[in-house]
Design brief:
2 domains; OB fold (Dihydrolipoamide Acetyltransferase, E2P); D-amino Acid Aminotransferase, Chain A, domain 1; 17 strands; single chain; 7-stranded mixed sheet
Length: 331
């Protein structure tokens, strides 16, 4: 089951009583425990890939779980040196196998944060309302006395507490927002019946290139200057609305020779191999943007940011300097 992004915490409304879960920045994963001695623990990504061979530490802890169990949750890793959850560390672990996977398990231990139970004792539970599935999940953790690496996702039905999570807890690296679910909902695979709300920060960036035309840009490619004055790429916007595209198109100017991004290639999305067809523009316009807290170690926003407005009253010298890591998301 999937979640659709929203701008504000939904109230009960027509959905009835709501549950609010903390949203972690990891890999959405289904966990299957063996139904017989010939099988082992399986971890399946949203795209159907089986990745349990990358996580021998989770496989070794599977004896704490009962047979015939299917859990839905988030796979995360803890960087023991940095003392925080690490998405980059999670990527390293999912790329490692064999001896490398076993070695990384010590410095980047994995955790499975369970937020739903879809099958128990071989019986399917997806037709049960969320309220009952959650009670079964809590009972499972209590009866089995499950501890690390198995973690029960925090949940509340208190809207005020959920708002506090969103405003303060999301300052913690690896916790990016909340997911809202109706207590009476069954689990519908592939259906966007949940709501997700990420904490967002408003900041500024320099427009270095566009897609589309000079009159009607579609995307803005953004940058910030580093301490040496070099313009570093930090990400791109979501597609511009028509009125915003006209506004930007009336102000951008095609770049002269010597643009700092000459010869660069830009991916269509973070981690994608598809390349955008871009037009370089003079890097002298400042965009006010709204961005979530997902920033990779190189200082690039992993998700498309939202363009809010042009800051014609702000010079590029006033834009926050480029910095690597999560702090680049704030301004």
């Amino acid at each position: 089951m999937l979640a659709q992004a929203v701008e504000a915490v939904p109230g009960p409304g027509v959905l009835g009583e709501l549950a609010y879960e903390q949203k972690f920045d990891g890999y959405r994963t289904l966990l299957f425990t063996p139904t017989g001695p010939e099988n082992g623990l399986q971890l399946q990504t949203r795209h159907g890939s089986l990745i349990q061979d990358r996580f021998p530490d989770l496989v070794a802890a599977a004896d704490k779980l009962p047979a015939g169990l299917v859990l839905d949750g988030e796979l995360v890793v803890w960087d023991t040196k940095a003392g925080r959850l690490s998405f980059e560390g999670l990527q390293r672990r999912t790329a490692a196998r064999g001896r490398s996977a076993r070695g990384l398990a010590a410095s980047l231990p994995a955790f499975f944060i369970a937020f739903d139970v879809l099958q128990q004792d071989g019986s399917e539970l997806i037709s049960y309302p969320y309220r009952q599935r959650r009670l079964r999940l809590e009972a499972l953790f209590a009866a089995r006395r499950l501890t690390s690496p198995w973690t029960l996702c925090p949940m509340t039905t208190d809207l005020i507490k959920a708002q506090q999570w969103l405003e303060s807890w999301t300052e913690i690296s690896g916790l990016e927002g909340i997911v809202v679910k109706a207590m009476n909902q069954p689990y519908r695979p592939g259906h966007r019946g949940w709501y997700k709300l990420r904490r967002r920060n408003t900041t500024e960036a320099i427009i270095g290139a566009i897609t589309g035309t000079m009159i009607r840009p579609q995307l803005l490619l953004l940058g910030r200057r580093d301490a040496h004055g070099h313009l570093r790429s930090i990400g791109r916007t979501a597609p511009l609305r028509a009125e915003m595209a006209r506004l930007v198109g009336g102000n951008v100017i095609a770049a002269n020779a010597g643009h700092p991004w000459e010869g660069w290639r830009f991916a269509s999305a973070w981690g994608s191999r598809d390349i955008l067809d871009v037009t370089l523009v003079r890097p002298d316009l400042v965009a006010e943007i709204s961005a979530d807290t997902a920033v990779d170690r190189s200082g690039v926003f992993r998700h498309a940011v939202r363009f809010k407005r042009l800051r014609l009253d702000v010079t590029v010298e006033e834009v926050p300097l480029f910095s690597a890591g999560p702090s680049a998301a704030t301004g």
